[in-house]
Write a structure and sequence with these properties.
single chain, 222 residues, alpha/beta, Rossmann fold, five-stranded parallel beta sheet, 12% strand, disordered N terminus
C-alpha cells in the first residue's frame, strides 16, 4: 500500500489536531514510521508535554481527577507548558533542519479553553502569542469525527478517560464545534475526515503532506 522513497528535509512544523478519540496518537505514530522509512529526520512530541515542565503540567491537568482547576488557571498552566515546548523542543529541532511532528499545539487551546471552557478567544490568542513567541506551525492537520464515534473509539480502547475527557458529551460537542469553526477561519489548517480504518486515514494524511510539502515528502507515490 505504501511504497518508500527518500527526500530532503527542510524543517517543517506539522501538528495533528482534533478532539479526544479522533486518532491523533495513532496517526502520529504511523507518520513517524513513514518518515523514518524515508530517511526524514524528525522529532515527535505531544502537548501538553515534551519537556520536564510540560510532562508535569500534563499530569496535573489530565491526571489529577480530584483536582478542581478553573478555566483561567488551566489556560495558564497549558501556556507555561507550551512556552517550554517551543523553546526547548520546537525551535532547536527546526534550527537543525528537522521536521517537528506534534500531537496538539495552539489550535487545541483555542478549541478546548476557548470554545470548550468559554474563555474569550482574544484573551486566549494573547496568551498564545506570549507562549509561542509568534511561532506557528507550517500545517495543522485537523482530524474530525462525530462525537458519538470518537466516544465509541475511546470506550473500545479500554483506556480510562482523563480529567478533561470526563467533562462529558456537551463539552466535547463544544470542542468539536470550535475545531470546525477554526478549520474554516484559520490559515494553515486542513480538515480531514478521521472515519475509517487507521491505514485509510493515514493514506489521506500522507497525500496531504506530499501535496503541501513536495520538496520534503517527495512525489505522489505512497
Amino acid at each position: 500500500m505504501w511504497s518508500i522513497t527518500t527526500s530532503l528535509v527542510s524543517g517543517e512544523f506539522i501538528v495533528l489536531e482534533g478532539a479526544d478519540g479522533v486518532g491523533k496518537t495513532t496517526q502520529t505514530a504511523l507518520l513517524s514510521w513513514w518518515m523514518n522509512a524515508r530517511g526524514i529526520e524528525h522529532v515527535v512530541a505531544r502537548e501538553p508535554g515534551g519537556t520536564p515542565l510540560g510532562e508535569a503540567v500534563r499530569e496535573l491537568i489530565l491526571g489529577k481527577m480530584d483536582l478542581q482547576i478553573p478555566p483561567e488557571p488551566e489556560l495558564l498552566l497549558i501556556l507555561a507548558s507550551r512556552a517550554a515546548f517551543v523553546s526547548e523542543v520546537v525551535k532547536p529541532a527546526l534550527a537543525d533542519g528537522k521536521v517537528v511532528l506534534a500531537d496538539r499545539f495552539a489550535l487545541s487551546t483555542l478549541a478546548y479553553q476557548g470554545y470548550g471552557r468559554g474563555l474569550p478567544l482574544d484573551d486566549v490568542r494573547d496568551g498564545l502569542r506570549i507562549a509561542t513567541g509568534g511561532l506557528e506551525p507550517d500545517l495543522y492537520i485537523l482530524l474530525d469525527l462525530p462525537v458519538e464515534e470518537s466516544l465509541a473509539r475511546q470506550a473500545s480502547s479500554g483506556i480510562q478517560p482523563d480529567r478533561i475527557e470526563r467533562e462529558g458529551d456537551g463539552f466535547l460537542r463544544l470542542v468539536r464545534q470550535g475545531y470546525l469553526a477554526l478549520g474554516d477561519s484559520e490559515s494553515g489548517v486542513r480538515v480531514l475526515n478521521g472515519s475509517g480504518p487507521p491505514e485509510a486515514v493515514q493514506d489521506k494524511v500522507r497525500e496531504l503532506l506530499i501535496e503541501v510539502f513536495p520538496e520534503t515528502f517527495g512525489d505522489s507515490a505512497l
